[in-house]
From TrEMBL:
Residues 59-317 form the Periplasmic binding protein domain. Its main location: other. This is Ribose transport system substrate-binding protein. GO terms for cellular component: cell envelope. Belongs to the bacterial solute-binding protein 2 family. It comes from Thermocatellispora tengchongensis. It is found in: Cell envelope. The keyword Signal applies. It comes from the Bacteria. Keywords: Signal. Residues 31-47 have a biased composition (Low complexity). Pfam families: Peripla_BP_4. InterPro entries: Peripla_BP_I (IPR028082), SBP_2_dom (IPR025997), TAT_signal (IPR006311).
């Protein structure tokens, strides 16, 4: 998400597990054994080294204020992962939604000469220059989620796949409607903030996936990523459509309000897909008695992984599952679909809205 909108959260325990999914097997870059034949594939780096104590590093961290469950979990995950390492000093600055205050906070980290900086900007464009100053000062920046427009302003970017969220939701809905033999379905979409590129990417992915089944969105309306706006928008759409076949809500935080409106209206003729992967959404799915059947992930485990990547970069190490000696320049996390069949696997990673 490359915008200054507070986003969703994650349980502390999920920080450790989720981060491990990406970089748990990272190792030091000791020379691998030479292949016995010129035709052999390159040998992987030796395993088991990177989680052992190494060069001491200080990781600076800055993120927006925790005005949503998702963004609250970003900070929790980052801190929890940093505490796993005896060689890491974690130096967070006060979270804020004020652009100028965040710029000042990052400047203070530059002045402290931290070894590496993990930065989730309120706005990637407006914090681009201060991130560039960090890079010019020799401090690698791990750009988390909301991307800086200038690639010279960050060493590595890690974030979610907004387009992929829409694709995952569209495939779930399209496949289920086809299986049920529904023709000309009424498909409703509740967005976040329509003017944001992240929202537009989600909607485009959704439309593209639906198109492959011969379907399209009947009606869509934007909310504001809050419970209150979720309730209001869902109520309006329910009143406007006496029959709905499927509904995709972009965000599980505002989904609390969407579900409240649905229950208040007594509607259950359709099924619903959520977005982000909150714990309350997973519990609804697990119950088997809700219209909410699935949610597609945009996981704040990315903060845990960002800390792990920052540590490796500061220690001049790479990732053991890759042949290359250095951490990649960008990593896009997949959007996964959570249903009743696999919800128990994901529930420990859910964040509270």
């Amino acid at each position: 998400m490359s915008e200054k909108v507070g986003r969703r959260g994650f349980l502390l325990g999920g920080a450790v597990v989720g981060a491990g999914a990406l970089v748990s097997a990272c190792t030091s870059n000791e020379p691998a054994a030479q292949p016995s034949s010129p035709a052999s594939a390159p040998a992987a780096a030796a395993s088991g080294g990177n989680d052992q104590p190494g060069q001491k590093v200080t990781i600076g961290f800055s993120a927006p204020a925790a005005d949503h469950g998702w963004i609250a979990a970003i900070a929790k995950n980052a801190e929890a992962t940093a505490k796993q390492y005896s060689d890491v000093t974690f130096t967070p600055v006060e979270p804020t939604n004020d652009i100028n205050q965040q710029i000042s906070a990052v400047e203070s980290l530059i002045q402290q000469k931290v070894n590496v900086l993990v930065l989730l900007p309120n706005d990637g464009e407006q914090l681009n220059q201060v991130a560039r100053r960090a890079m010019d000062a020799g401090i690698p920046v791990v750009n988390l989620d909301r991307i800086f427009p200038d690639k010279l302003s960050y060493r590595t970017w890690i974030g979610g796949d907004n387009y992929g969220m829409g694709v995952a939701a569209g495939h779930y809905i399209g496949a289920k409607l086809k299986e049920k033999g529904v023709s000309n379905p009424v498909i409703v979409e509740i967005q976040g903030i329509a003017t944001l590129p992240l929202t537009q990417d989600r909607s485009k992915g959704f439309a593209d996936a639906l198109k492959s089944y011969g379907f399209s969105v009947t009606a869509k309306q934007d909310a504001q990523f809050t419970v209150e706006t979720g309730t209001e928008v869902a109520s309006n759409l329910l009143q406007a459509h006496s029959k709905i076949d499927a509904l995709w809500n972009h965000d599980d935080d505002q989904g609390v309000g969407v579900l409240a409106a649905i229950k208040e209206a007594g509607r259950n003729e359709f099924f619903m897909v959520g977005g982000a992967g909150s714990a309350n959404a997973m519990r609804e799915i697990q119950s088997g008695s809700s219209v909410l059947e699935a949610t597609v992930t945009y996981s704040p485990t990315m903060a845990s992984s960002a800390i792990k990547l920052a540590r490796l970069i500061a220690q001049n190490k790479g990732m053991s599952d890759l042949v290359e000696n250095q951490v990649p320049q960008s990593i896009t996390l997949a959007s996964e679909t959570i249903t009743k069949e696999n919800v128990e696997q994901y529930l420990p990673l859910g964040f509270e809205s």
